[in-house]
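Researcher: Please generate the 3D structure of the following complex. Treat every line as part of one assembly.
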Amino acid sequence: MFGKLSLSAIPLSQPIPLITSLAVMAILIGVLVLVTVKGWWPYLWKEWITSVDHKRIGVMYVLLGVVMLIRGFADAIMMRTQQAMAIGAQGYLPPEHYNQIFSAHGTIMILFGAMPLVLGFMNFLVPLQLGVRDVAFPTFNSVGFWLTASGAFLVNVSLFVGEFARTGWLPYPPLSEVGYSPGVGVDYYLWAVQISGVGTLITGINIVTTVLKMRCPGMSYLRMPVFTWTALASCLLIIAVFPILTATLAMLTLDRYLGFHFFTNDAGGSPMMFMNLIWAWGHPEVYILVLPAFGIYSEIFPTFSGKPLFGYRSMVAATLFICIVSMMVWLHHFFTMGAGPAVNTFFGIASSVIAVGTGVKIYNWIFTMYGGRVRMEVPMLWSLGFIFTFVIGGLTGVLLAIPPADFLTHNSMFLVAHFHNVIVGGVVFAIFAGLEFWFPKAFGFRLHEGLGKAAFWFAFVGFWVTFAPLYVLGLEGMTRRLQHINIEEWRPMLYVSVVGVAILIVGVVAQVAQLVVSIRDREKLRDVTGDPWDGRSLEWATPSPPPFFNFAVLPNVEGEEAYWGIKQRAIETQQMSPEPRYRPIEMPINSPVGIYTAFFASVFGFAMIWHIWWLAILALVAAFAGFVVFAWRDVHEFEVPAEEVAQADRARRASREAALARMAAAEGTPEGAGA
Amino acid sequence: MSDIPFPASAEAIRRQREDPHRLGHRGHGREPVPGAGHGQTGPASKRIIVGYGFWIFLLSDIVIFSCFFAAYAVLQGQTAGGPTARQIVDTTRVAWETTFLLASSFTCGLSFAATNAKNLLWTQVFLALTGLLGLGFVGLELQEFLELAAAGATPQRSAFLTAFYSLVGCHGLHVSVGGLWLATMMAQLQVKGFRHEIMHRLICFNLFWHALDIVWVAIFSVVYLMGSIS
Ligand code: HEM
Ligand SMILES: [Cu+2]
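Model: Done. Output below.
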């Protein structure tokens, strides 16, 4: 009846997961009770859960990502403390638990933390920057988000019921085959990642179609903001490589569930094939994350330097170059597995060549600041911290890409330091910079500046104190994924690293405090003009937060940096463009199909993990029924009357006009103006 | 937020903030072009957007098939003492399968011609034929799998058979799901007639079905033809 599921699946004997589970459940129940008591359900259901508005979906993605980052950070704290305590001793974590922690940490951070954050930014910004009203497929967009959430949900269920994989964030066979991992841990990994992968693919298709087919009049390719370019490149990579992940995990699933022999040691299976397939996805995956991050920096540097981006076209070229070459370097992840010198040389050179494209970008950002009027506000701090951190991460990456050097550092702490350098310094810093930068656009008020600066400095210093020692440890020969340490010489550096984590914790607290304080002071921090940073691309032409239809009338773009041009003209002539003729707008209606699909996907995944076959079939049938009902829907859109559109837009114009007048009176406040 | 003092006039601000060195901006896109510049006329029509998006989805599906093809290529020789490709290929059955599938693609195309002529009856007739031919294909494939399994050539027998069943089965699964989709859509067409969104779906279905045909041609060549001569 319940397959492999029984009461013993709940970790009653292990205090750490048990207490965590209870605490998380208490918080969850508390939130649910609060929402119910306050009567917020109708609002949440109508405005968020069933929303197909790309901005709402973007915000929900970001929320999911932030929560999962914190979850992953908790795992990280446990790992660092365990390693510091387990030098010639037991430590407090049993080995099999420690193995689950590093597997969950990697999986969660990359697939359920960084990925939703990046997708969230793309969802929120791409239509705004292109001057259109929504993405190409709004309802599918909602399905994509909820499937990602479903995957994240399954990963967290593994904490309460059963166990997680002990195989690392990429489940290498034969370790992940049934013979060596008989429990449900790997199955949790497989179904969670598979389901969220489908969601990611949907978003990828959506964004690519949006960028290629839905730009506002005059928005030619070489006028698109660089963030949109990087989103396009990143989503092209998603379309090219996420199917590889789907196929690879499907093969491993067949091996585990039906005794197939894709990757087994016996009957002719090939574990090496898994390495090739998984890294053909895995390496581009890091560029799927880092390219949009580059896009975020490319928006921040010009804005806070008061200058157009240096070398716009070379930036676009470098983005596409990285996009293509990143698919030709996957083998550098297993130089040491004996592919031979010729193959290793080819992949070593290909890997290093990426550094050229990245170098172009770094120089462009630096030259953007050169001769500009640089404002050291919080997004800029994160961006400068990024340049410093990422350059060092990139240099150590080039070192790893030289096969003979990699033989010494492969799977050592040096590698761990390298990829955290690029992934934290590149992606996570970008996310925080972007949150600070676009928060006023999404919510209508700015974040507290002082606490933001504090958060940056603690995170930056904490990051370096945590990871610099790992380079040293790696060179001293410490390998990754150790549960216990029996070499006394490593003690000092491991201790330093723990101190770094403590500093990082302060940074996280500052970040949370910033959010709380800003919400409290939101009236004082209100962004009335919609253009708080003196921005340059079209999202700043809308009010903060933008109306659900984004633009009353689609803008007509007449040059690079669409909004900057419009704004300058308004400042020069001291007046706004004449009022347009407003027309009614068609917008898609809300739909519960996303949450419905995700619900049955979660049930299906859970049933498959525990071998509850009848429930799995039931979930599939229900999902198909839902598909039919959805396809049967007659009304897809509703009309926003012209008066409503006009009303919203007149309010926006009034606030811009006021800003223009203020600017003329004060003769030069940098606060936004124009229309 | 920032309290850096700015120069007196708006004109001066403008000059200040402009790129003083004008490097990396070879004029392109800087000069305002009156009217909708660069021949871009705004968002495409719904029909184009839907077709385009679905086309991209098909590309990603082809990538999935490529992985199974790659696995087949790698594992082809790994028979672990079990039957080889040559021993399991039944050319007559494969010829029939191919005939069914290609014919179904033809009727699918005819159905779309009827759709363009807004002829409900013929659209339905050809869609039904497409579905039946597809069903025949899946039936034959199932028969093949069952006979092989009865003879002990199960996917668990060897890595080669694993790859064989998975590649061919992945295609068969696509055809079956396509059939389910087809049935749903025929019902919808009957009830609602040729509406915009139904036309869009018919376009997508056509793309899907023809793409499956192309994949089958590859399977036919790589698995069955090359298998029968190896
Ligand atoms: C400057 C360009 C880069 C080069 C040359 C490079 C090179 C490498 C090499 C050779 C490895 C394998 C080392 C080994 O296993 O011994 C590696 C691992 C890794 N890299 Fe990079 N990398 C670069 C950029 C990035 C970026 C931008 C990211 C993320 C956003 C990243 C994330 C990772 C991760 C997560 C691993 C760990 C894989 C594992 O679990 O074994 N790298 N990199
Ligand atoms: Cu790589």
